[in-house]
């Protein structure tokens, strides 16, 4: 394949938005689509290299994997080694264990599978895993392992069948992606079967699926449209965009248009400018190094990056990438410097050493002996959650019937139910203890990221809420229903449909004769509470002043608080206001009597739920249902 400098320039267009997105730079909320740009480029380049070799009968699988090892492994090993050393200095044991798992998965080119399995809704600290970004490398490596042998088989069937079969596979992968976004969004995001169509789009370009464009005007226009599509995705998409789904067509087609049409165009000349090409040349190192550097900076600062910290981290990432490209990437890519025999011996050895280090991190429970007992105690509250969380709480696409919901408390039919998202879980456990003291029981009806708001949320959430409302209305033994959600999330509760859906839930329950108890927002912390408190103590810093600002909480939740106040005046409706207990004059507490009140940054820990339990005592102690306000 002839060298095309504009393709290296396109790599810069891929990597820079990713960096800006991860650094939280404004107008780059969709910068994650840079990964999709990389996928198309990779599919194009790999197919463009091996397809002619196969057609001429000179393809060697060993030579192909040698090139992949030279390109990928040395720098990856350096980044993993750096991450282990930095984590040994900075990380708490639990976080070191998470890194150890990801080290092993990364070495085995399966980190995308690990992060898919770990991406459950309350794992708020995935953005503190230094190797999280290697999921995309795993997808590419899985493609590199499977695609060349498959392409060789297709070549034997005949070139006339090759392109249609690859096109059919791309369409099948795309349709699986669209289906999975609703059914299993994490699977759709992380896994190779739902991402393969992006790489195969590049393959189709390399195989000449589209005839060459002769018209200069058409090439100019199509290349410009391609760049415009990529830029629009970077600027207009956000973390709330269902992705990949149909939305991924925007950056993927944009990249395909640029590759297809940009040769000898204004767009191509801009992408071929020296500084742009240079960023493209170091893009692999830049992609690998930037995320661990950002993670360790956030971890050390115990806060999000902002202002000069962002600039410093970006510059440090750029310097690390240049050095890595110059002294690691380039020497290993030159066969005259690093011989095949040494490469095939050194790479597996280094990978085995890192795997052993990862296993040691797991066996030693994150090298727990590094930290003092008081630090370990605070960190342990990351696990201070309901003992019934995994078996009583529904996750996306749960098939557990409402009749099989957990009933906590005394062995009697449930008189109470708590209906909500993940914020219901720890309170349900505490409610079970309260109910048991009065020979009563409570049913837990909770679903991941699914507030008790009719007509809102994912398809699975809407189906669950429809069934939950019918069940709660139809079962006469359930007389009191507590409603709770993660209202203080800064986004979902601002839509008018949200207010209408919550009003529908409350009014239908109340009209059916149920007593409805509205649980007001639990203040969200600005930190991962147990981890941050443990790091404060480890660093010799005070924790007594740690907390979130009450004024910011009230301002952020003004609309939902007003809505709940309005609903609380309806017949058969009462309210409980946790922030009256958790917040003082200016600050909302995250630590009381030496115990963190949260197990992450917004879920109450069991200790936190027990702290506000007295607010609910009257409902379980009351023999009469009047005067619950």
TrEMBL record:
GO cellular component annotations of the record: membrane
Name of the protein: Acyltransferase
Organism: Microvirga ossetica
UniProt keyword annotations, A-Z: Membrane, Transmembrane, Transmembrane helix
Superkingdom of the source species: Bacteria
Bilayer-crossing regions: 12-29, 35-51, 72-92, 98-116, 162-181, 187-210, 222-239, 245-263, 270-290, 310-328, 340-363
Domain SGNH positions: 392-617
InterPro entries: Acyl_transf_3_dom, Acyltransferase_3, SGNH
Molecular function GO labels: acyltransferase activity, transferring groups other than amino-acyl groups
Claim: Transmembrane is one of the keywords in the record: yes
PANTHER family per UniProt: ACETYLTRANSFERASE, ACYL_TRANSF_3 DOMAIN-CONTAINING PROTEIN
An example Gene Ontology biological process: lipopolysaccharide biosynthetic process
Domain (Acyltransferase): residue spans on this chain: 6-325
Pfam family, one: SGNH
């Amino acid at each position: 394949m002839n060298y095309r400098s504009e393709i290296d320039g396109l790599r810069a267009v891929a990597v820079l938005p990713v960096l800006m997105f991860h650094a939280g730079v404004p107008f780059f909320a969709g910068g994650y689509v840079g990964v999709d740009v990389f996928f198309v480029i990779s599919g194009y380049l790999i197919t463009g290299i091996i397809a002619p070799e196969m057609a001429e009968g000179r393809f060697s699988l060993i030579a192909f994997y040698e090139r992949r090892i030279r390109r990928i492994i040395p720098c990856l090993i350096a980044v993993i080694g750096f991450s282990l050393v930095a984590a040994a200095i900075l990380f708490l044991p639990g976080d070191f264990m998470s890194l150890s798992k990801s080290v092993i998965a990364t070495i085995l080119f399966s980190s995308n599978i690990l992060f898919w399995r770990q991406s459950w809704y309350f794992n708020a600290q995935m953005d503190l895993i230094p190797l999280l970004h290697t999921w995309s490398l795993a997808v590419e490596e899985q493609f590199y392992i499977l695609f060349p042998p498959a392409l060789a088989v297709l070549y034997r069937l005949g070139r006339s069948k090759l392109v249609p079969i690859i096109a059919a596979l791309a369409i099948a992968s795309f349709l699986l992606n669209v289906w999975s976004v609703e059914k299993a969004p994490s699977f759709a995001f992380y896994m190779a079967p739902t991402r393969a169509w992006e790489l195969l789009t590049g393959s189709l370009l390399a195989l000449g699926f589209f005839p060459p464009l002769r018209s200069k005007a058409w090439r100019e226009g199509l290349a410009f449209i391609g760049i415009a599509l990529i830029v629009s995705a970077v600027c207009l998409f956000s973390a709330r965009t269902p992705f990949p789904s149909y939305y991924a067509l925007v950056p993927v087609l944009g990249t395909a248009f640029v590759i297809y049409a940009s040769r000898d165009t204004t767009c191509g000349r801009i992408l071929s400018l020296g500084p742009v090409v240079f960023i493209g040349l170091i893009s692999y190192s830049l992609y690998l190094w930037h995320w661990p550097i950002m993670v360790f900076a956030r971890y050390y600062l115990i806060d999000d990056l902002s202002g000069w910290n962002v600039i410093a981290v970006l510059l440090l990432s750029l310097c690390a990438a240049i050095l890595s490209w110059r002294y690691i990437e380039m020497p290993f890519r030159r066969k005259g410097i690093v011989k095949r025999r040494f490469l095939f011996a050194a790479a597996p050895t280094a990978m085995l050493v890192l795997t052993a280090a990862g296993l040691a991190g797991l066996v030693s429970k994150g090298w727990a002996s590094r930290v003092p007992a008081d630090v370990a105690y605070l960190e342990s509250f990351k696990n201070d959650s309901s003992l019934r969380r995994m078996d009583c709480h529904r996750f996306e696409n749960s098939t557990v019937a409402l009749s099989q919901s957990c009933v906590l408390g005394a062995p009697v039919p449930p008189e109470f139910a708590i209906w909500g998202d993940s914020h219901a879980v720890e309170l349900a456990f505490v409610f079970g203890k309260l109910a048991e003291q009065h020979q009563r029981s409570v049913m837990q009806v909770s679903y991941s990221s699914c507030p008790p708001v009719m007509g809102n949320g994912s398809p699975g959430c809407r189906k669950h809420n429809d069934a939950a409302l019918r069940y709660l209305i139809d079962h006469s033994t359930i007389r009191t229903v507590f409603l709770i959600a993660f209202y203080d999330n800064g986004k979902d509760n601002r839509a008018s449909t949200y207010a209408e859906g919550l009003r529908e839930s409350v009014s239908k329950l109340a009209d059916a004769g149920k007593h409805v108890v509205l649980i007001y927002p639990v203040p969200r912390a600005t930190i991962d509470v147990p981890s941050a408190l443990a790091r404060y103590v480890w660093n010799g810093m005070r924790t007594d002043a740690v907390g979130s600002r009450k004024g910011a909480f009230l301002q952020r939740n003004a609309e939902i608080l007003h809505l709940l106040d309005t609903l609380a005046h309806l017949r058969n409706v009462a309210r409980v206001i946790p922030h009256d207990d958790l917040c003082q004059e200016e600050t909302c507490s995250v630590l009381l009597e030496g115990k963190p009140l949260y197990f992450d940054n917004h879920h109450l820990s069991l200790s936190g739920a027990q702290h506000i339990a007295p607010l609910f005592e009257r409902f379980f102690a009351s023999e009469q249902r009047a005067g619950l306000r």
